[in-house]
DNA sequence: CCGCATCCGAAACGATACTG
DNA sequence: CAGTATCGTTTCGGATGCGG
C-alpha cells in the first residue's frame, strides 16, 4: 500500500479533526483557556456528553491540555498545547470558507 | 439563536467538507478532471458506494461538476467548479498538517 | 464503464438522569 | 462545577448483487 502519497495525509488529518465539534472547540480555545461550562455556552448546541468526549479525544491526541485546580468547587481549565496551536491555520481557512458558504447565493 | 458568531462558520464548513473522503477526493480533482474508476484507483480504500455518494454530495453542493459523455461505453468525468476550487487552500493546509501529524514523535 | 439497491454492522451524536 | 451512565436515533461505511 503506497501510504506516502500526499492525499493520505489529508485523510489522516480529517480523521483527527473531522467531526462536527472538534474544530469549533479549538476555535474557541485559540482565544485562551476555557472552563467546561464556558465551552458549553460558547457552543450552545453541543451536548454535555459530546463536549466531554471531544475534549478527551483532543487531550489524548496531545492537542489540548486539561488542568484541574483542586478548589471547592473544583475548577477545570482546557487549553491548547503547542501542538494544538498548529490547528490555528486550519481554523482560519475554515472560518473564511464557512463565511463565504453562508454568503453565497446558490445554496 | 445567535448564528452569526464566527465559530458557527467553522461548524458549517465542517458539516460540508467533513467526513473521511470528501477532501481526499477534492485533493485529486484539484489536479484535473477524473473519471469514476480513476478515482477508485486514486483512493484505493473507498468503496464504490461511498465514491458515488460523496461525489453526488459534492455535486449537490455545487463544488463538483459531473459530465456524461454519451459514448459507448459511457464516459463520466468529474471536475471542480469554480466554487470547488475555493477548497484548494483548505486542502493545502490539511495536507501540511497531516504530514506533520505522521512525522511527529508522540503518537 | 458507471453506477444503483439492499442489507447490515459500526460509529457518531443526542436526551435524560444521576454523581462527587 | 464538571462530569458518568444509559439509552435511542441517525449517519457512516462496507459487502454483495443487479442493470443500462
TrEMBL record, chains A, B:
Stored InterPro entries: HTH_HxlR, WH-like_DNA-bd_sf, WH_DNA-bd_sf
Superkingdom in the source lineage: Bacteria
Record's keyword terms, sorted: DNA-binding, Transcription, Transcription regulation
GO MF entry, a single one: DNA binding
Pfam families: HxlR (PF01638)
Positions of the HTH hxlR-type domain: 8-106
UniProt entry tagged with the keyword Cell membrane: no
Protein name: DNA-binding HxlR family transcriptional regulator
Amino acid at each position: 500500500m503506497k501510504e506516502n502519497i500526499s492525499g493520505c495525509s489529508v485523510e489522516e488529518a480529517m480523521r483527527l479533526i473531522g467531526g462536527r465539534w472538534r474544530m469549533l472547540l479549538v476555535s474557541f480555545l485559540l482565544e485562551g483557556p476555557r472552563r467546561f461550562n464556558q465551552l458549553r455556552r460558547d457552543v450552545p448546541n453541543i451536548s454535555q456528553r459530546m463536549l466531554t468526549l471531544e475534549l478527551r479525544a483532543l487531550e489524548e491526541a496531545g492537542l489540548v491540555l486539561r488542568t484541574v485546580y483542586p478548589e471547592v468547587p473544583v475548577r477545570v481549565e482546557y487549553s491548547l498545547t503547542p501542538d494544538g496551536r498548529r490547528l490555528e491555520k486550519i481554523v482560519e481557512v475554515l472560518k473564511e470558507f464557512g463565511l463565504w458558504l453562508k454568503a453565497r447565493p446558490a445554496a
